[in-house]
Amino acid sequence: MGTMSHLHTDPPRAWTDEDGPVPPDSWGRDLSPGRALPWGFMLVIVLLVVGRFALAPHLTSAALRTWATIFVAICVQALPFLVFGVALSAAITAFVPASFWTRALPGRPSVAVPVAGMAGAVLPGCECASVPVASGLMARGVTPAAALAFLLASPAINPIVLVATAVAFPGQPLMVAARFGASLTVAVLVGWLWLRFGRSEWLRIPSRPHDGGSKLVAFGEAMRHDLLHAGGFLIVGGLAAATLNVLVPREWLTAVAAIPWLAVLVMALLAVLLSICSEADAFVAASMTAFSPTAKLAFLVVGPMVDLKLIALQAGTFGRAFAVRFVPLTFALAVLVSALCGWLLL
Amino acid sequence: MNRLSQSLVLALLGGAVLRISAFSTTYLNYVKPGFRPFLIGAGAVLLILGATGLVQAWRMKEGQRDGPVHDHRNEDGAGDGSMHVPGAGAGDGAGHAHRQGHGHEHGHGHEHGHGHEGPRVAWLMCLPVFVIFLIAPPALGSFAAARSDDTPRPRSQALSAFTPLTGDGPVDMKIGEFIGRAWDDEKRSLTGRQVRLTGFAVPSRKQGQWYLTRMQLACCAADAFPLKVAVKGVPAPAADTWVEVTGTWIPPKFEKMPNGVVHPELSATGLVKIDAPAEPYED
User: Fold this and answer.
1) Contacts with B71 from chain A: Cβ below 8 Å
2) CB-based contacts of B22: which residues, under 8 Å, 6+ apart?
3) Is the Transmembrane helix keyword given for this protein (chain A) (predicted)?
């Protein structure tokens, strides 16, 4: 490293002067993360194919197999909804300019909040995408309260999520209606409360994100990014649901489920912990057969609005002062409204 | 998680989904039959995303490797370096990030410059692939059936929906239909009729009987529930054995339905072992 200053002044000569140890110690370094990876994956694939025949016949414990079936079932059932939802949401992120929103929303903030909430019903936004979209809206001059209403509503009540809910709860159309009603109510209420009591210094409005480059590239990038995020958390949810299903004795679940308020609270907290994407959460909720419909509704309403992944995203985007106020408010309202809706409708 | 591994994870998952949906009927162990086109679509999208990402990453890599090599050849002529320098050039670019030269821009820009770092949680997407290939989860069997005793009543059919059973000889019937006719048919059409039911065996805690069972899906295998008929008169096969049972319904002796879960009973006369059906769940 004694040649450092020399390298700075005369970069091209670096290659000629670096005839140090043979072979240079950077050889191994180059191989390890970059070129070794494909080989590592090839090895994994070979192992998978071999394991299919060598290992699978021996992994026959009934509990393990049941766990695996439930886990794979949740992943496989939710995946198409996830892929489709992410694609649409990425298309909106990439192809609809944010200036469209400023023009489409009414000028009066108190009216703009419910309109923005309703816009969530037509425009799919994956919840990971909804935070950057909302911050983009604010950066382009949309009232923060309206942007927040959109942020809460769009992952919860968009058409793909509603279809997924209908598929997960066949023969129970009221579950879809209750999810729609409760989520929209919470989104609008939070928006109005923020309009009335919120202070601008709590909210750090990010600077306008630069948009450059081709829209198709932006679409591909947004889709890949959301898919990796949402897919990872879907697996977390599937793991937890399958484990609950197989490991936790049924009597415990029925005992918790028998106390209505506790069941609602437990499912709401579970939604926060699991952080499942809204396109996929209905299938996890439906698998919790021990719980009442109201408790499942709480899971479906809380999940898209408050969960660990969203809290992290919101705190990172809008600042911690915002998150410590916004998150508890949303959680409390979501639990209350879904309990009320469940009591009325289900 | 760099771009290459992101793409590989996506491609692996897409491949696994296609493997169970497009190229076999394994998906029937997990979801309903009508879901196949959506699975194939989703698997294809994942595979395409992964494959295009791989091609891009490969090109970047090639560009990154080519850069320093050209550089070297221009500066150094066709000297001794051609053997070891390509490796050294690329490695220096990534390793000594503070260098101002050519290698810096390529090696460093790829890793961090465009914000392509994926979330670490995405690694979990490998897990279903491992489970699909290594455990090869079968359709739910007696373990799941024995766990969930809170069987919801079969979807209510209008009473008139029970058509009279015609013909002679044993009638092939779904277990769900048998249960429906056993409890809800006012004309008691099952009385004295031989029926043939298909399902797998689940041991019972009561002496002298076992359960002929078929799982039904509400949506997917995660919310499956068992349809059970208590079989008497033939010895119980090993748990999870698929069988066809011929027999007649035993009308209940009670007038009013007792509390708790009650399964209709069948007095069996014949039992044939069969292979597990391709569609393991009753629709």
Assistant:
1) 12, 15
2) B39, B40, B43
3) yes
The angle at the Cα of A277, spanning B10 to A154, to the nearest 5 degrees, equals: 120
Give the Cα separation of A194 and A63 in Å (integer).
Answer: 48
B50: closest chain A residue by CA: A224
Q: Which residues of A touch B283 (CB under 8 A)?
A: none
Among the partner residues B10, B42, B71, nearest to A15 by beta-carbon distance: B71
The larger pLDDT score, comparing residue A184 to residue B68, is at: A184
Quick one: DSSP state of residue B271?
Answer: E
Confirm if B108 and B68 have CB atoms less than 8 A apart.
no
Which pair of structure tokens corresponds to residue A97?
């300019």
B178 φ/ψ angles, rounded to the nearest 5 degrees? -60, -45
Peptide bond into A155 cis (omega under 30): no
CA distances from B170 to B193, B196, B227 (A): 7, 6, 20
- Tokens found for residue B50: 């992964």
Instruction: Suggest the residue from B220, B225, B240 to mutate for an interface test with chain A (most A CBs closer than 10 A).
Output: B220
Which bin fits B277, alpha (ψ -120 to 50), beta or left (φ > 0)?
Answer: beta
* Cβ–Cβ contact A83 with B under 8 A: yes
Q: How far apart are CA B23 and CA A346, in angstroms?
A: 41
Q: Residue for token digits 């239909």?
A: B177
Chain B residues in contact with A33 by the CB 8 A cut-off are 2, 94
A338/A183 Cα distance (integer angstroms): 8
Q: Cβ separation of A12 and B88 shorter than 8 Å?
A: no
Q: What is the number of H-type helices and E-type strands within chain B? A: 7, 6
Categorize the per-residue pLDDT at A299 as very low, low, confident or very high, splitting at 50, 70 and 90.
very high
For residue B103, give both structure tokens: 């290698």
Chain A: give the shortest CA distance to residue B169, in Å. Answer: 35
pLDDT at A37: 67
**CA-based nearest residue to B48, from B71, B85, B26, B15:** B15
| β-bridge mates for residue B201, sequence order | B212
Nearest to residue B200, comparing CAs of B171, B162, B260, B241?
B241
ipTM: 0.79
Exposed, middle or buried, B108 (CB in 10 Å: 0-12/13-18/19+)? Answer: middle
Q: Nearest chain A residue to B92 by CA: give it.
A: A26
For chains A and B, CB pairs below 8 A equal 245
Check residue A250 and give its pLDDT.
76
Contact A15 B72 (CB under 8 A): yes
Contacting residues of A for B138, CB less than 8 Å apart: 65, 69
Option in B75, B134, B140 nearest A48 (CB): B134
pLDDT digits (tens, 9 = 90+) for A166-218: 989 988 899 999 999 999 999 999 999 999 998 888 888 766 555 556 778 88
pLDDT tens for each residue of B40-57: 999 999 999 999 988 888
